[in-house]
Amino acid sequence: MSSLSDLQARLQADILGEGRDAEDLIAPAPHGSRASRLDVYRRAYVLRLTEFLGNDYEKLRIYLGETRFSRMARDYAAAHPSDTPNARWFSRHLPAFLRQSKAFLQHPEVGELAMLEQALNDVFDGPEAVPTTLADLAAIDPTAFGNVRFALVPACMTVEARSNATSIWSAIRCAETPPAAEPLDMPQHILVWRQAGSSRFRILGEEEFMALSCVAEGLDFATICEMLATYDDPETAALRAANYLRGWIEAEILVRTPAAS
Amino acid sequence: MTHHTLPYLGFGLGLRPQHYREILETAPHVDWFEVISENYMVPGGQPLRMLDRIAESYPLVMHGVSLSIASTADLDMDYLAQLKELARRIEPRWISDHLCWTGVHGVNLHDLLPVPYTEEALAHVSDRIARVQDYLGRRLVIENVSSYITYECSEISEWDFVAELARRADCLLLLDVNNVFVSGMNHDFDQRAFIESIPVDRVVQFHLAGHSEGETCLIDTHDQPVCEEVWTLYGKALERFGTVSTMIERDDNIPPLAELVAELDTARAIAALALHPLERVS
Lengths: 261, 282
Description:
Structural class of chain B: alpha/beta
Radius of gyration of chain B: 18 Å
Low-confidence stretches of chain A: none
Number of helices of chain A: 11
CATH topology of the largest domain in chain A: Outer Surface Protein A, domain 3
Mean pLDDT of chain A: 94
Largest sheet of chain B: 8 strands, parallel, barrel
Mean pLDDT of chain B: 95
Shape of chain B: globular
Low-confidence stretches of chain B: none
Shape of chain A: elongated
Largest interface: A-B, 52 and 50 residues
Helix content of chain B: 40-55%
Largest sheet of chain A: 3 strands, antiparallel
Number of helices of chain B: 10
Number of strands of chain B: 10
Oligomer: heterodimer
Number of domains of chain A: 2
Strand content of chain A: 5-15%
Strand order of the largest sheet of chain B: 1-2-3-4-5-6-7-10
Helix content of chain A: 40-55%
Number of strands of chain A: 5
CATH architecture of the largest domain in chain A: Alpha-Beta Complex
Structural class of chain A: alpha+beta
Order of helices and strands of chain A: HHHHHHHEEHEEHHHE
Distance between the termini of chain A: 60 Å
CATH architecture of chain B: Alpha-Beta Barrel
């Protein structure tokens, strides 16, 4: 190992807290000890990563409070040292980390709040697409409409919550005291998407979630109508499907895909 | 001999999301913007849209924090590909990053760690700069960092290292005046000697910024206005390097845009006095 690579490995290990082994690399400082100078880098590492997490998970930071958030951030940084040159992606493991963390096993809303914030972040700067418009829809030959297929734009996803994490998120956003965490009777399907440059979310009903899942799977419109007819009143299935379609198009989350040959 | 043909851009600011709308709506008196490259290495969305719009009205310069040019880890070709793609998109006047390393063994510490000033490091870093320059098809602009430690193994001064690095790698330099001040105070060296040792024809940009007092040294925090001592050092830099594109960095405790524009006017005034002293009298 060269002296440069050895120096870098030892200093990095010291900053990561894997061993206080770097002091003899450091020249005496005119003011303060070698240790005090190294402390600048040691402290900055933890503070900076905590700040990255705080930027990505603002609501979670408020929900946990500064002390618990900082402790959680230290634990996360120890479990997942940054492996990316872009700070934007450092926090990507946080929802999974929180779900598995012993400290939050009794608080599933914590991981789900993080999951929701991550989804909002991911659609915010997710890939671009040109969404289908109502004008595009009007141009489709009515006799061919049954064969039409759509896909979801890349900056759109659904996530599932089993706690009232969305209510907690909304209360924090309004600077209100969040409700007590509680489990839901039924899992909640949350649509998260980008519209006019901003991230949004809303809770989907069971039928709409099923229909949107069919769209994502690439089923054509006629098949989706048939699925809705089996779910509820068959007489109004086509109307319900058309209403969902209009809502998704107005939300700018669909792109047209070629009909299957 | 002049080592570059890069344009003089005037007085710029760091582009920060808090100011996007005001920049687009009021066209403030800022000649150019410096963008943090990594902030725009994302798939899409509002940040890139805003960047595209601002690029239509202002010259841009890309400034990275994760090139890790002095690391002994392999060059991150995926990172470089994203850097190149961003440069293709916004056509920056130049691309800069720091004389530092940010991690090894697959870890990124997200800090600008100083280099030991040794022959080994000089050979290593100059070789990597040359490889990156070849890949990007343009010359890099390398910035001196603020540091809080120096290494026992260093053989030469930071300024001699920087000057020799620029010569060997044939790269250009971004002289961060605040970093010279901070490191000078922290390591007890003569900041003017630093400035006097940097080759005039390599410097294409100045950085100005604020710093804070830590327990035993100054910290490069970019969270407050440029202090008087750094303005004085800026005047000295102008006397040596002449007309050089100048920008003010602010990354924390970010004030309203008007405050930064006013601070930039201070830079303009100091430059006018330093570069055209006779006009002051007439």
